Amino acid sequence: MLEHGGRLRLAAARYGIPLADWLDLSTGINPNGWPVPAIPAATWTRLPEDEDGLTEAAYSYYGTPVLLPVAGSQAAIQALPSLRAPCRVAVIHPGYAEHAHAWRRAGHAVTPVAAEDLDDAVPQSDVLVLIHPNNPTGARFPLDPLLHWHAGLAARGGWLVVDEAFMDAIPGESLARFCPRPGLIVLRSLGKFFGLAGARVGFVLAEPALLDRLHARLGPWTVTAPSRWVATQALADFSWQQTARQRLARDGERLASLLARHGLAPHGGCALFQWVCTPHAAELHDRLARRGILTRRFDDPPSLRFGLPGSEAEWMRLDAALQALSEAKVCA
């Protein structure tokens, strides 16, 4: 299994710091997520039902008439490669490593491609896999090249797969409204923006025939009844969504400014995280962890991803830790 952020218990054991004393900035999950109310008891005693209102809420939220609920977008990432015969797959790099891992494991020829080289990669590929905004770089792609790449791939039976796990803060840039189209597959998740990672709820937006194949591959009851109930309420809470987008935009800018003030100007990011390339990534990660602050470290290229603090006390704690490291010349 690949390494991911959020492995707080492992960090607590390694550094000897109690779980409750950590500031976890490693995941890019909204620290002020949708406030989950009491869940009806009946959701625990009945099998999940497709007619519970979840798909209708998702249709409205994503602006598409066809989609498939899945157990987080990770379930689709793992299953989609099995729906094609071995082919040539270009995957953005650096990016969420599970995509390349899943396509390789299914026997496909995977080529990592830098964002600036995507235009050249499309004619040589049968499938193009993007994360938009990219994780961890935060790179975003204008609509015109996205649709151009899709058209070129679809014309020869190919796919454009776009993981929009971090798109909810800027929904106007989503490809969701263009679904369903042949060869266009959009993955969405409630884990990041809504802060509901533990519910494991995601959606695949694609052609009905492809969704039918994916559904058959995944089997019934992929999303639990309590998770379906929570997701339905969250997707319909437009007032909370609007407020959250405004707050995340401010907090993303605040985090970028805070890092820059301590000599760690981000090389990219989005509303939910900032990405810092530095040859000192491993040392910074370790020094912060010794202070009970967990970041997400990457080796290629050496870099750190910082998620958002959730309270003013947490902002002050991060500020103080970075100041101490700066004074110790760790960031130099």
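The above is record 1. Record 2 follows with the same two-line structure.
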Amino acid sequence: MKFTCAKTILSEAISVCSHAVSSKSGDSVIEGILIRCGEDVRLTGYNYKIGITKSIDANIARRGQAVINARVLGDIVRKLAGETVTIDVDERPAVTITCGAAKFNIMAMNAADYPSLPEVEKYCGINFTNASLKSIINQTIFAVSDNENKPTHTGALFELQENQLTVVGVDGYRMAVRNESVITTLPEARFIVPGDALKELSRILPDNDEPCCVFTTKKFALFEFDTVTVVSRLLEGEFINYKAAIPANQPIALRLDKSELIHAVERVSIIISERLKTPVRCLFEGTSLKLTCITSMGRSYDELTIPQCSETVEIGFNNAYLLDALKACPEEEIIFEMKSGLSPCTIRPVEGNSFVYLILPVRLKAGE
């Protein structure tokens, strides 16, 4: 195998595929990147949970394939000073990497030992733009659980019905629901994508309006965009009935400025830390929202002017959970809904139903 390509293109491809490379597995072959040189050059990273393949433009002198340690290959290419890189792999397999006056000789691994990626037939898919899929993931992933006791909650539910896609993340304390109209020939679909795969997908998705498509089987999902394909296993099991968990009628609905609320919560949260955990106490009274926090470090207070609140409500929130939901809202104004200090609150858009965020309150104690 021998090819020459631009250093920047190769470095980017290594970086993308490294998101699926296992760093400490005990299996050296999946700590490497598989490079296939045929009609084009394709790089692959695969850790048995997620696989990423990226094609690049290159001048191919000799076909072949080999596995090269991802960290070593990435470090070498990133440090090279020239504009073009040549990679030459012989039968042993030994690798020669040249760029300008620089030359590296390292050993590769046999491509035959590299695991095969799952095959997903590209028959009927769900179509997005790269930017829309990225926003869907970023606006729900924060609510995905990391508790393995409920495996299905460590992923996000994708539910398709009549060209309407709903993506849901839940961890037992909060829930994020994102709705998006999509183009698809599928009448319906329902599958759970692991949160780890979605995090890596979000990191490599471009923020542009180029097309992106997802295809699924019973056990795997394949995301395809630009010159990249990402394949992930799916989670099996029943997901929570998220529709039943969302309160139907919240008697208190306030139109709030998202940024003002974020800044106020951040200010009173300064005295909160991992060691000094305490809820943010929110008192909705008349046209005022009074935020208070008390820890062993001291006391913090802030106040916002809000629309007239029909009832006086005192409710406590985990500051991180509240901030995550607020920061995920794509609009500057939101509808903040409540029933009482012990009932879940919901955050919705001013118009439409593009998202719903649900946060469980923290039971307040006297003096807290």
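The longest strand covers residues 174-181.
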